[in-house]
Amino acid sequence: MEKVGPQLTVFELRAPGAPEAAEQLFSLLKNVPIILLELGGTCPEVANVFPEPVVELHLAFDVETKRPPRVVADFLHQLRPREKRLSLRLVRLTWTTSTKFSWLRFGASHPNVAGKLLLESMMLQSERVQVQDQGRKSLRVRDWDQPAVSPGSVKRVASRRRRVEDSSP
Questions:
Q1: Cα(27)–Cα(29) distance, rounded to whole angstroms?
Q2: Measured distance CA(60)–CA(48) in Å, rounded
Q3: Is the pLDDT of residue 99 over 60?
Q4: Phi/psi of residue 126, nearest 5 degrees
Q5: How many CB atoms lie within 10 A of CB 46?
Q6: Chain segment 38-48, per-residue pLDDT in tens
Q7: How would you classify the pairing of strands 90-95 and 56-61?
Q8: 24 in helix, strand or coil?
């Protein structure tokens, strides 16, 4: 790993039963921009050794366990309070099953855990980290002081409507 680690562009770790593996391996990854990580029943303590250059993180977790997967929210919580800044800009949540993770489906099946996951997602969003489902959809916090539509786009739509109306017989 010491020789290969600096040359990697994508690193995938699927060892949900060995959370300490992430701790040991992440400290050796100095330049990897994308990490794919499968979480098990316990949350690995990797916040202190998470590679700084990581821009994109794919988190896979098992939704079919008897306990709802609180480990994902716990992991996202770890990523927030950091002494050193991360380059992380995107976290994509996935399931280990063939079904794609979606916010809507997860919220319907695990409402209590979904609430905690949404809270952690919003907190990361305030740090400029987007949390997406597998459909690349994310929940966004809207600043109500800002218009939902820019004035320029309203003028463009009105202009298009006038052109369509003028061209009709």
A1: 6
A2: 20
A3: yes
A4: -65, -20
A5: 23
A6: 877 666 677 66
A7: parallel
A8: helix
